[in-house]
């Protein structure tokens, strides 16, 4: 039931299938019409020809029969068609005198023809039973010199006519079926060819959605180019709006920083005074939250992924060099080691600024909590390049890992931080559709795993 419904949906929603159904109907109607009319015309023609021939034979027969004055019949010579001589060939003739002589073709070894077919001087024909099955008989009468009636009858088995028609119909059906298949094949090719620009458009839009390219490239057929132009205009406008919104969000966050710093300062003073310490601490807690939110949204606004307009790619492992340099300065006691798998080099579909941001968040965390070393592994996994950053620090429990991506979440307050790093990293990764997970390292510490799509 369900599959029937979904099949119906495919038929309704796929342009290709709609065209294919229309072409099938069109070809079926056309070929069916040709088949019907061709068999009708052929049957009519061959029947007419057949009847003409028999009519000629019966006239010839009458010319060849000699009637003596006393009504005796003799044949001056055989009929020109030799099939009247072959035994039971299906071609027969008979001449009979009322209550007198009967002459029969040599082919008619047994049986006889119905002389009633010949019942008037006019040539008549009828379908009746001959010596070897259904037959078409022609006949007419002439008076003998003694006044008696002579019946001339020619009869041919109907199966010859039927076989000719059936043979023609069979061959025609075969040819027309071949033609139908060829027409449907070329029709399908025409559909695929004419819908190609739509496929290209769909791919371009998918690229656009994935942030890989914009605006829609290339020239499109006249029928859809207005749509593409409108879409391109819309994209450009949209980009401008997003860019403006990002700048405004950044400006807003920046403009709030200074007053927030002043309020935080005042709150600290208040918290230090014995009269207002309670209110001061409350204020400080709230300003902390505000700072976190502002930093988080600023980082979000900065990310090209959020705007989906980048189309940039990054190189692995090249991107790590400046990051490791910076991290080694930030955490001098920790050893950062890059193990680029089996020489994994890859171009990945992510803006280098965004990838650097995510990696520096993960490397900074690993550096902050590592005892002595941080190992970076690269491995290709199907369409993805998997980056794993493993430290040898205390790691986190499963519950801590589950909550670590929240804004402002910090478990170890002995290290500096605002609890925003992982929240921002997850936001950026999700915007690209990448997988970012944390897990306990095999021996000790934490392993952060980021899977990025290769270009
Ligand atoms: N490699 C790690 N080992 C142990 N704990 C970690 C590790 N990475 C993160 N954590 C825990 O998860 C918390 C959240 O990390 P997150 O990066 O979001 O914030 P942060 O590092 O404290 O501050 P920020 O990154 O904003 O400077 C950390 O405070 C820490 O408790
Ligand atoms: Mg951090």
Automatic annotation (TrEMBL):
<feature type="domain" description="HAMP">
    <location>
        <begin position="195"/>
        <end position="243"/>
    </location>
</feature>
<keyword id="KW-0902">Two-component regulatory system</keyword>
<feature type="domain" description="Histidine kinase">
    <location>
        <begin position="251"/>
        <end position="455"/>
    </location>
</feature>
<keyword id="KW-1133">Transmembrane helix</keyword>
<keyword id="KW-0472">Membrane</keyword>
<keyword id="KW-0812">Transmembrane</keyword>
<dbReference type="InterPro" id="IPR050428">
    <property type="entry name" value="TCS_sensor_his_kinase"/>
</dbReference>
<keyword id="KW-0808">Transferase</keyword>
<dbReference type="InterPro" id="IPR005467">
    <property type="entry name" value="His_kinase_dom"/>
</dbReference>
<dbReference type="Pfam" id="PF02518">
    <property type="entry name" value="HATPase_c"/>
</dbReference>
<keyword id="KW-0418">Kinase</keyword>
<protein>
    <recommendedName>
        <fullName>histidine kinase</fullName>
        <ecNumber>2.7.13.3</ecNumber>
    </recommendedName>
</protein>
<dbReference type="InterPro" id="IPR004358">
    <property type="entry name" value="Sig_transdc_His_kin-like_C"/>
</dbReference>
<dbReference type="GO" id="GO:0000155">
    <property type="term" value="F:phosphorelay sensor kinase activity"/>
</dbReference>
<dbReference type="InterPro" id="IPR003660">
    <property type="entry name" value="HAMP_dom"/>
</dbReference>
<dbReference type="InterPro" id="IPR003594">
    <property type="entry name" value="HATPase_dom"/>
</dbReference>
<feature type="transmembrane region" description="Helical">
    <location>
        <begin position="174"/>
        <end position="195"/>
    </location>
</feature>
<dbReference type="InterPro" id="IPR036890">
    <property type="entry name" value="HATPase_C_sf"/>
</dbReference>
<dbReference type="GO" id="GO:0005886">
    <property type="term" value="C:plasma membrane"/>
</dbReference>
<feature type="transmembrane region" description="Helical">
    <location>
        <begin position="20"/>
        <end position="38"/>
    </location>
</feature>
<dbReference type="InterPro" id="IPR003661">
    <property type="entry name" value="HisK_dim/P_dom"/>
</dbReference>
<keyword id="KW-0597">Phosphoprotein</keyword>
């Amino acid at each position: 039931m369900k599959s029937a419904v979904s099949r119906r949906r495919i038929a309704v929603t796929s342009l290709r299938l709609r065209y294919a159904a229309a072409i099938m109907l069109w070809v079926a109607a056309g070929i069916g019409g040709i088949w019907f009319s061709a068999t009708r015309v052929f049957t009519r023609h061959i029947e007419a020809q057949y009847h003409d021939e028999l009519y000629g034979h019966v006239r010839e027969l009458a010319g060849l029969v000699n009637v003596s004055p006393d009504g005796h019949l003799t044949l001056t010579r055989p009929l020109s068609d030799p099939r009247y001589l072959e035994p039971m060939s299906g071609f027969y003739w008979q001449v009979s005198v009322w209550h007198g002589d009967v002459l029969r073709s040599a082919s008619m070894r047994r049986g006889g023809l119905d002389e009633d077919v010949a019942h008037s001087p006019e040539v008549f024909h009828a379908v009746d039973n001959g010596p070897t099955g259904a037959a078409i008989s022609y006949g007419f009468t002439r008076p003998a010199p003694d006044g008696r009636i002579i019946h001339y009858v020619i009869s041919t088995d109907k199966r010859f006519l039927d076989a000719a028609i059936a043979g023609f119909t069979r061959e025609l059906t075969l040819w027309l079926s071949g033609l139908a298949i060829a027409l449907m094949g070329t029709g399908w090719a025409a559909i695929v060819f004419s819908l190609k620009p739509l496929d290209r458009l769909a791919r371009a839009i998918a690229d656009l959605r994935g942030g890989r390219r914009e605006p829609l490239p290339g020239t499109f057929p006249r029928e859809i180019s207005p749509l593409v132009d409108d879409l391109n205009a819309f994209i450009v406008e949209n980009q401008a709006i997003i860019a403006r919104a990002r700048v405004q969000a950044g400006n807003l966050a920046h403009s709030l920083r200074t007053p927030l710093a002043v309020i935080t300062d005042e709150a600290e003073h208040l918290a230090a005074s014995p009269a207002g310490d309670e209110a001061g601490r409350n204020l400080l807690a709230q300003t902390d939250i505000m700072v976190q939110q502002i930093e988080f949204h600023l980082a979000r606004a900065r990310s090209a992924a959020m705007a989906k307009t980048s189309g940039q790619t990054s190189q692995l492992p090249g991107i790590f060099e400046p990051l490791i340099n910076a991290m080694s300065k930030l955490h001098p006691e920790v050893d950062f080691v890059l193990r680029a798998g089996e020489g994994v080099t890859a171009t990945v579909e992510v803006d280098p600024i965004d990838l650097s941001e995510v990696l520096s968040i993960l490397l900074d965390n690993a550096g902050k909590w590592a005892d002595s070393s941080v190992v970076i592994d690269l491995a290709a996994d199907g369409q993805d390049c998997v980056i794993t950053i493993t430290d040898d620090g205390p790691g986190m429990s499963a519950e801590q890992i589950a909550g670590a991506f929240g804004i402002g979440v910090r478990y170890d307050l002995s290290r500096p931080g605002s609890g925003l790093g992982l929240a921002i990293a997850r936001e950026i990764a999700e915007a690209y559709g990448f997988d970012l997970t944390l897990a306990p390292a095999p021996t000790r510490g934490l392993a952060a795993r980021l899977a990025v799509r290769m270009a």
